[in-house]
Amino acid sequence: EPRKGTLDIPGGFIDPYETAPEALARELEEELGLVMDPEQFAYCFQCTNRYPYQDVLYHTLDLFYRLELDERPMLQCRDDVVGYEWISKLEVTQREVSFDSVRGALVRYCAMYP
Predict the structure, then answer these.
(1) Are 9 and 99 in contact (CB under 8 A)?
(2) What is the pLDDT along the chain (114 residues), one digit of tens a residue?
(3) Is 92 within 8 Å of 106 (Cβ atoms)?
(4) Letter string b/e over residues 97-111, b meaning 16 or more CB atoms within 10 A of that residue's CB
(5) What pLDDT is attached to residue 104?
(6) 22: helix, strand or coil
(7) What pLDDT does residue 99 have?
(8) Cβ within 8 Å of residue 89, ≥6 positions away
(9) Quick one: which of 72, 74, 60, 71 has its CA closest to 105?
(10) Could you give the residue ranges of the DSSP H alpha helices within the chain?
């Protein structure tokens, strides 16, 4: 929730005293069991978003980072993740994506890194 059953990317909210890369590293471990060094993330871009949760509409600033992996690691679905897929950039724009901001970020990413 919200938008359960749609395609999304790993992420979450930043805890107090946490940097954005530290939060992303924590979320990747919490959601997928993937342990990463925050120094490995390359900042890409940001956008605003509206995030509905428990009858409240939150206005958020979404930060997107790029991470290159040498290989596809085995992931473990945890926390609020029910599954994962490795899909091509071409497939991303044809799937139902969780939020407009994520859809826009994925389209923008595909244009930046063809």
Answers:
(1) no
(2) 667 778 888 888 999 999 999 999 999 999 999 999 999 998 888 888 888 888 999 998 889 998 888 999 999 999 888 889 888 877 876 678 888 888 888 888 888 887
(3) yes
(4) bebebbbbbbeebee
(5) 84
(6) helix
(7) 80
(8) 109, 110, 113, 114
(9) 60
(10) 20-32, 89-92, 100-112
Q: How far apart, in whole angstroms, are the C-alpha atoms of residue 51 and residue 29?
A: 22
pTM to 2 decimal places: 0.83
Is the separation of the CB atoms in 7 and 89 below 8 Å?
Answer: no
- What is the identity of the amino acid at 112? M
Taking the C-alpha atoms of residue 46 and residue 21, their distance in angstroms, rounded to an integer, is 13
Pairing status of strand 42-53 against strand 56-66: antiparallel
| Number of CB atoms found within 10 A of residue 44's CB | 14
Question: What are the E-state strand segments in 8-93?
Answer: 42-53, 56-66
